[in-house]
Amino acid sequence: MSEGIKFRILQKAIELFNERGFESVSMRDIAEELNISPGNLTYHFRKKTDILNGIISLLMEEHNKMNYKPEITLTEFDSILVQVEEHQKRYSFYYKNIIELKNKYPEIAQLQKDYKLEFIAIITKTFCYLEQNGWVKPEKRERLYEDLSVAILAIAAFGNQIDLNRDMREVIWSMIYPVLTEEGIKEYQTLIRRLDTSD
Known about the structure:
Blueprint: H1 2-20, H2 27-34, H3 38-44, H4 48-65, H5 74-90, H6 92-96, H7 98-104, H8 106-132, H9 144-162, H10 168-176, H11 182-198
Helix pairs in contact: 1-2, 1-4, 2-3, 7-8, 8-9, 9-10
Domain HTH tetR-type: 3-63
Keywords: DNA-binding, Transcription, Transcription regulation
GO molecular function: DNA-binding transcription factor activity; transcription cis-regulatory region binding
C-alpha cells in the first residue's frame, strides 16, 4: 500500500513539475492535487528534494531498461531516438532544467556525468559498428565519430532548452546524413518511407 501511494505521489509530482516547473510547485500543491493532507505527503517524502530524488530514480530505472547496445542497424538507431524523445517528454521538467538541477544538486551532477560518459561511449561504438557494416563512411579524421557522438548528446540533452521548435530526430539525422555510405542512404530512405506511410 505504502509503495502504491509513493508511486502516485511521484507520478502527480512529475505531472505538476512538467506543467508548472519544478520551482513553482510546492509540497502543498502536490498534496492538494492528490487530495491528501500535507502531513500524509511528508510521511512518505519529507521534502520536495526527496520527491525529486524519487523521480530521478524512476528516470534512471527507465533509462536502464532501454538497454542500449552498439550493435544496431540505422533503423534500430532511429528507434532509440524515438525512445529518447518519449523519455524526455515524460520528464520534460528535468530536461528543461538540466543545468540548474545539476548546479543545485551534486548527486544529480554525478548522475549526469556518468550518463554522459556512457552515452558518448555507446554512440561512438555504434558508429564503429555501422562503419564495419558499410552503413557509414570511414572516419576522415581521428575521433570524428566520438565528436559526432558528443554533438548528438548535446542535441538530445539540451534541445528542449533551446526551444527551436525543431524535431530532435530530424536534426540528429541531418548531422549523420553526410557520413552515410550509399548503402546507409538506402536504408535511411527506406526508414523515411516507412515512417511516412505510418503517419
